[in-house]
Amino acid sequence: MGLSVPQAMLIIVVSRILIAGFSTLIAWIGLKWHIGFTVQNRYSWGMRGSFIPLLQRIMLNFIWNAVQFPIEQESGSLKGDVQDFFNLGSLVTGWNGGRLVAVCLTAIWPSYARIPNTFSPNFPTTTEQFVGFVVFWFLSTPFLWLRPEKFKIPFLVVCTWCGVGMLAWMIWALATAKGVGPLWNSGQNVPANSEWNTSWLIMAGINQSIGGLAAGITNGSDFSRYARRRRSYLWGTFGSCLVTGVLVSLIGLVTAAAAQKIYGEVYWNPPDLLMRIMDNGKGSSRSRAGVFFLSAGFAFTAMFENICGNTVAGGIDLAGLFPRYINIRRGAIITFVAAWIVQPWQLINRATTFIAVLSSFSVFLAPIIGIMACDYYILRKRRIRLTHLYRTEMSEYYFTKGFNWRAIPAWLCGWAPTIGGLVVTVRGDARPPRALVELYYMAFLIGFFISGVLFYLLNILFPVADMGQMDPIDVYGTFTLAEARRVGVTPLDDSTIVGEALAKGSSGNDYNFKGKDVEVGVTS
């Protein structure tokens, strides 16, 4: 892109603020009602219509579980490169996590880097890379049996390990180079013949940054529903986005700039620089020991990010699609094994257009986020009837044969203006229509607001009956006493349930409380 360091950091800071905001907007639903992505789409799309966003998420989980890595949509993008070097959220996972394992193996056995390639020259990978992927895959397997609510301690360990490693690496690079290289002081260098001025390039960078995490934004409730306190989620989200996210990118830039002064070229991919530090295994034992602990920390971070963000998320989505046959663990295992079906080595080395489309999939996800936000905050005024989320024909969320038709045109219109820009960008047209590319550079915000506004208008013109209703009783024991009071429902308590429900009034729905069939007002 030719942007300067301050401009690249501006993109990172602004995008992190927006990511934290959009994430909280969606995850707040899980914080209050303790429901995940698969369930919360039912009141917006309908019981069957919810499969539309759900299937998109499942497809992404299958593929990104196999290969998730930084993709630059603009060659030479300083902003993209800074984020790529150190990014705990998208650090080389899946197939490329195997590269970090290969670095570890080379640090232990230097001859590993020179292992003969036993594959055919036409096969899109080498024996060294393939073995690294297999080892990475098997090391990840035991963690599939770890419940999502138990992720806290392992994440603290690997994040601390990785964070200390990043700081140590930066300090070593600065001490060895005795300062930063010319990259740090490089000014704006937008080509004179470029059709895009600095403002548009910054807008494109912000859109790319938000879009890269759009899939995680959509299913934020899958994990926020486990939070004990709302402020715990807020501290974690805004702290990781605004503090850790910015610092990690800054540390990556400083390290890459110092390494440029040492080796004479810029390395943006951590495995490449780690291999150069130990001279492909020919370096000293001290350098190999340092590289081992760094690459191991990054590999474990990539492993847990992949398991949490892709494998478990895929398990949750599959459990929502086939609840009778698949639970979260079975779904996670299916998603995990699907890595072999996807064959990431083929995607990375051959299907570059396919990967580029996936990296821009926020074109389709942003409208979903807009519909979710509009429906919950504006139309339903943050009120949901939980019991109707788990019924079929008797549910007010069944709409028309299981579909809320209002969501479908709202979603289609959200990505229709930007799909043309996606096509010409991925296709690499030499001189694409400027209007299409400009729309694409704002795809996330355009999709979010168009779908949200249109969904609101359709609901005003064709109103849904009983919108914004909620159960008078905490039927499933979802809330603590404090939460029940805050939400405004009667806690699930055998001694007071019927009397309090009668005092509040009821719609006459049948419930089952702790094994007792109760129609409010009539006990049996």
TrEMBL record:
Q: Look up the record and report any one GO term of the cellular component aspect.
A: plasma membrane
Give the source species: Cochliobolus heterostrophus (strain C5 / ATCC 48332 / race O) (Southern corn leaf blight fungus)
Membrane-spanning residues: 9-31, 85-109, 129-146, 153-175, 200-221, 233-259, 291-319, 331-348, 354-379, 408-427, 439-462
Q: What InterPro entries does its record include? A: Pur-cyt_permease (IPR001248), Uracil/uridine/allantoin_perm (IPR045225)
**Gene3D superfamilies on file:** Hydantoin permease
Protein name (database record): Uncharacterized protein
What does the record give under GO molecular function?
Answer: nucleobase transmembrane transporter activity
Assigned keywords, A-Z = Membrane, Transmembrane, Transmembrane helix
Q: Give the family from UniProt.
A: Belongs to the purine-cytosine permease (2.A.39) family.
Give yes or no: UniProt keyword Transmembrane helix: yes
Q: Where in the cell is it found?
A: Membrane
Q: How does it sit in the membrane?
A: Multi-pass membrane protein
In which domain of life is the source organism classified?
Answer: Eukaryota
